[in-house]
Amino acid sequence: MVKPHPLFNFWSADEVAECMDGVTEALYRRLYEVVEPRANTPGLDYREVNDSFNHCLGHAGWLKLTDDERRQLNEIAAAFERAAV
């Protein structure tokens, strides 16, 4: 199994989809497929909804991705990290 880049311990799937350069349309759609929004769940307050929606990608959703998608994301994260330095 391809392990997640360390950035994905802090970034959620939707943040990666929206903010990192190099995410293809197919990968963008896939990232939103692994997000599990619970905004319509009765009885949850805002904090619970926000926390549920914004799990970091390395913990929530990573196992739902294919190895190819994981590799692509790790390459994107590595490029993002290099550009930030």
- Give the helix level as a range of percent: 40-55%
Strand content: under 5%
Please report the number of helical segments: 4
Distance between the first and last residues' Cα: 28 Å
CA-based shape: globular
- What is the succession of H and E elements? HHHH
- How many structural domains can be distinguished in the coordinates? 1
Radius of gyration: 13 Å
Outline the low-pLDDT stretches. Answer: none
For the residues shown, what is the average pLDDT? 84
Major beta-sheet overview: none
How many DSSP E strands? 0
Q: Specify the structural class.
A: mainly alpha
Can you tell me about this structure?
The chain has 85 residues and is mainly alpha-helical. It has one domain (6-84). 51% of the residues lie in helices and 0% in strands. It has four helices and no strands. The chain has helices at residues 13-19, 25-34, 46-53, 67-84. Helix 1 runs antiparallel to helix 2. The model has no long low-confidence stretch (mean pLDDT 84).
What keyword list fits this structure?
85 residues, mainly alpha
In a few lines, what is going on in this structure?
With 85 residues, the protein is mainly alpha-helical. It contains four helices and no strands. The longest helix is centred in the C-terminal third of the chain and has 18 residues.
